Structure formats: structure tokens, C-alpha cells
Amino acid sequence: MLKTIKGFSITTLTLLAFSQSGMAREFADIYTECGLGAIIAPTNRAVAAVTNVTWDSGTTAIISNLSSPDTCNGGQEKVASFIYNSYDVLEKDLASGSGRYLDSLMELAGYESQAPQKLEVLRNGFAKIVANPSYVDQNRFEKAEALYDLVVNI
What we know:
Blueprint: H1 2-18, H2 20-24, H3 27-33, H4 35-40, H5 45-56, H6 59-67, H7 69-73, H8 76-85, H9 87-96, H10 100-108, H11 115-131, H12 140-152
């Protein structure tokens, strides 16, 4: 398993070396602005870097920089962090259709001007997520990730 991860990391680093988007961002910034580290600690660069290195040797951070560099510096890490840190309250706000946390989420995601339409799509999508039988067995990260994916793709 470790051999596979190392091989994958080397391949990813090679792709990074030849990628224009990878060259545009300093390597240290990738570890602090992308991946799981940026989601968990968007305002603490040291914690973000340690998280990325500890979790998977930074592979997720590198891949997110290559595949979707705009999510690393476009404020999406703040959306992801907000969802993760306030998931329980967001779940309740989404169920009721209103609340301070839901309002904050919509603002962070940039949906203020389209709030009623986006909110309806978000609530319908979230209802489908919650209705999935596997939902009850998911951990906080998995639930937050599903909500994040829904938010950024509506």
C-alpha cells in the first residue's frame, strides 16, 4: 500500500512539474491552500500543511491544485471549512429552510442574488442526500463533503 502511495505521489509530482497551473502556485501554497488541510484549517497555514502531509503525503492537495486550482484560492476552502465546522446547525437550518448558518452559507458560496432559486435546489438536493440509507453511517467529514459538493455544483 505504501509503495502504491509513493508511486502515485511521484506521478503526481511529475505532473505538477509540467503543469502550468501547478507552476503558477508555489509548492508551499499548495499544501496550505488546497486539499484537506485547507478545508480543516483555512486560516492556519501550519495546521493546513501538517494535515495535508499527515493525511496522504500531500497527494490530495496536489491533485486539487492540478484538477481544480480555482477551488484552492477562490474562497471555496472557506465554504468547505464553514460546512464542516457548522454541519449540525446547517443540517437543521436546511431542514427548516432558514437560519443564520444557512444564510451565511449562501453568502459564502456567493448565491446572495439568486438565493431563493439556489436555496430550493440546495434543499431538494440535501433531502436526497439525507434520504440515502448510507447517510446514517457516514461520519461528519463524509456528510460535510456531500453537502459541499452539492453547494458548489448547484
